[in-house]
Amino acid sequence: MPHINPNFSQEIKQFGAKDFEFCFNCGNCTAICSLSTASESFPREMIRYSTLGLEDELKSSLKPWLCYYCGECSSDCPRQAHPGELMMSLRRWITAKYDWTGLSGLFYKYIAAYIIGFLLIIAGIIAFAVSKDFDQEVIMHYGHYFEMFAIAGVFAVILVPNIIRMWIYTIIKPKVKAPFKSYLNAFSELIIHMFTQKRTLLCEDTRETRVRWFEHLILVIGYLTLLFTTVFLDWFGSHNLFVISLGYIESAIIFVVTFDFVLKRIKKKSELHKFSHPSDWFFVIWLFFMGITAFMVRLFIDINIIENNFWLYLLHLIVLVQWAIIIVPFGKWTHFLYRSFAMYFAKISGIKIK
Ligand code: SF4
Ligand code: SF4
């Protein structure tokens, strides 16, 4: 007997779904979706499952990740049931299910949880700075160590166990036959999707689609390389001109692209940007702050005014810690990771996707 949650409609609305119960099952959305195929069709099926509260079917499905939220289905829905937004909300809900800590669900459902988390981190950093007498060298030294250990810690303690839970829900529990060899053979798929998100280009062939894909691509490159530059090349402490310039370029890419993302969400011109969940805002705004504060800190170091403006480094550290401890493990950042693994698991399972 499938498990039915009669309150699922209410629950998924806490994750951002809008009016999906208006759906009268016409199938326009599935017909228009460029990424849906005959064997892997969505979003209508996901809407039916959501309406019926079939939690287990939803939890074991990779389909929420096959949608890249172009919004075509929502524009063409005769009932304004916002199927694209439902798919987005299912991704939030499903990540809350993958997360063993339960914190993702808390953050997605209650904005107050974000605010409390952010405030606790501000208080913690200020207390730490006071305990070190605002000693610039010592605090920057610890800040650098935090960057290294936070990444390793978040991956080891939260993200890797959550990916294993995703694998259990989508491969093991549904008893998908996947020989060990298929895990090796499909590995390149994981890397390719992780870095290129190339399926975005299969959405409606418009300039907007291509710009969106390109912005995501350079953002991923900028973000990952800045991480490398700050953690392994010690950007803030480096005297190497190449490393310094590299960090400037990477951080500039981050704040320029995310500024554009914020503007698009404010303007709400496309379907994709019509409804922004708090987690969407936190993702783009914090990434913007990360880029701009990192850029400014390095600039202040280079023009020798960081000592008298140490507040800027503390601000950067606050943003960095909030990003690393809240947004990366429990917020929208995880979608980038889970989506890449979804493509990998789809390949392993022999699911034919576009
Ligand atoms: S969501 Fe809209 S387009 Fe899709 S099946 Fe329902 S009514 Fe039709
Ligand atoms: S948002 Fe785009 S990709 Fe997602 S289901 Fe709708 S049409 Fe398909």
Task: Please describe what this structure looks like.
The chain has 2 domains: 8-98, Alpha-helical ferredoxin (Fumarate Reductase Iron-sulfur Protein, Chain B, domain 2, Orthogonal Bundle), CATH 1.10.1060; 103-349, no CATH class. It is 69% helix and 0% strand. It has helices spanning 8-13, 28-32, 44-52, 55-59, 63-66, 72-76, 83-98, 103-109, 111-131, 136-172, 180-185, 187-196, 207-231, 241-267, 278-302, 310-330, 333-349. The two termini are 32 Å apart. The mean pLDDT is 94. One iron/sulfur cluster binds at residues 33, 35-36, 42-43, 67-73, 83-84, 87, 203.
Q: Give the radius of gyration.
A: 21 Å
Number of domains: 2
The quaternary structure here is single chain
**Helix content class:** 55-70%
Termini separation (Å)? 32 Å
